[in-house]
Design brief:
- This protein is an alpha+beta fold.
- It has three domains: 85 residues, Integrase, DNA-binding domain (Double Stranded RNA Binding Domain); 92 residues, Orthogonal Bundle (DNA polymerase, domain 1); 181 residues, hpI Integrase, Chain A (Orthogonal Bundle).
- 45% of the residues lie in helices and 8% in strands.
- Helix 4 packs antiparallel against helix 5 and helix 9 packs antiparallel against helix 11.
Length: 401
């Protein structure tokens, strides 16, 4: 194909083409706009027209496609060519920038990439599902189709504003999750800042209402245990719930208990039977040693007869599976007690405060709470095992066991 140069009287080294010519030209050839940016219009034999830029990038001659008229006008093509020239003069690579622009994921794709990246780090599968479900519900409908690089603080505001005051806790979590995705995008080079960080001052103040887990008064716990023992629930469920109350542990720590964690025979290092829960199963990621009361030991003896060979102390109805998270809660509610399973820890703590002379640190250690004062924590070396043994035996006696 021969190269045709448009004749112009102007001595200007660029802007040789005009809009009328671009619209009317039909003869195949290459029509240069000038030699400053290397822009030219290519007309093929079938009449198709393309904007092309011939430019040197890193010492190599390249040709960049800049679109086709009339969608890309002469003015648009000139601006794009000039921007590419500036990029090259500044030491950049317009080809690389173009490839990167195509590779930038949508917000929805970025959300799932971050979800898969962090999923192995969440100890509770529930946290993983909440992460992606809240984003699917509140953010994806508005941001899902947008490139993660194009989202502005105003876009984040549009997501959060409708439920910021109506569902404050959910809104704060969605904002945190949005921020995590944008920080990932910054680290990947897709954007320069986190737009979720810039909206806090613009959003209205939330009314902070701290919701406490529903708990029975400690004087009612004994009756609850009796109701559980007399219920039609499965033996594994009944034993697990009673041990949860006796040890003041969290539901997951009880449901996932394995026989290998128990040291039921006395030894020089452990004069009392104990349960050694590994760090990876504790909320604070620290090993927790639980002294076992006589009733707790009796529960474990009963649980041995239910063994399914998997090593689980309280196997669920499905072979090799633990009791579900809702099993214990559902039983308490069905028996007519308006309390959360987690609330039995509150019952124990209140009993320890009001009915015993044990120091606060002893009951806090029993609950596996973290000492928040760094200076105090630095000197805290004791696990109060002897005192906790007496405390848990007293708690068991109080409950009538």
């Amino acid at each position: 194909m021969g190269e045709v140069i448009v004749s112009q009287k102007s001595t200007n080294p660029t802007n040789k083409l005009n809009a009328l010519f671009v619209k009317s030209v039909s003869v195949p050839g290459k029509y240069h706009d000038g030699n400053l940016t290397g822009l030219y219009l290519r007309v093929d034999a079938n009449g198709a027209k393309f904007w092309i830029q011939r430019i040197m990038v890193n010492g190599k001659r390249c040709e960049l496609g800049l679109g086709s008229p009339p969608v890309t006008t002469l003015a648009n093509a000139r601006e794009a060519a000039l921007q590419n020239k500036r990029t090259v003069v500044g030491g950049g690579d317009p080809l690389k920038a173009k490839r990167l622009a195509r590779a930038i994921p949508s917000f929805k794709d970025a959300a799932y990439k971050v979800y898969e990246l962090y999923k192995p780090t969440w100890s509770n599968p529930k946290h993983a599902s909440q992460f992606i479900n809240t984003l699917e519900t509140y953010a994806v409908p508005k941001l899902g189709h947008m490139k993660v690089s194009d989202i502005t603080p105003a876009d984040v505001m549009a997501v959060l504003t409708p439920f910021w005051t109506a569902k404050p806790e959910t809104a704060r979590r969605v904002k945190q999750r949005l921020s995590l995705i944008f920080k990932w995008a910054v680290a990947e080079g897709y954007r320069d800042f986190d737009p979720a960080q810039n909206v806090s001052e613009a959003l209205p103040k939330q009314t902070k209402v701290k919701k406490h887990r529903k708990a029975l008064h400690y004087s009612e716990v004994s009756n609850c245990i009796t109701a559980v023992q007399n219920s039609k629930a499965g033996d594994s469920t009944k034993l697990a719930l009673e041990l949860l109350i006796l040890t003041a542990l969290r539901s997951g720590e009880i449901r996932n208990a394995c026989w290998e964690e128990f040291e039921l025979k006395s030894s020089p290092s452990s004069p009392h039977p104990i349960w050694r829960i590994p760090a990876d199963r504790m909320k604070a990621k620290r090993e927790h040693i639980v002294p076992l009361s006589n009733r707790a030991l009796a529960i474990l003896e009963a649980a041995k007869r239910l063994s399914d060979g998997t090593g689980l102390v309280f196997p669920g109805t499905r072979p090799g599976k633990t009791l579900s998270d809702m099993t214990l809660s559902k039983l308490v509610k069905e028996l007519g007690y308006d309390a959360d399973v987690h609330g039995f820890r509150t019952s124990f703590k209140t009993w320890a405060q009001e009915q015993t002379d044990f120091e606060n640190e002893v009951s806090e250690m029993a609950l596996a709470h973290t000492i928040r004062n760094k200076a105090e924590a630095a000197y805290a070396r004791s696990n109060y095992l002897e005192k906790r043994k007496r405390m848990m035996e007293d708690w068991s006696t109080y409950l009538g066991n």
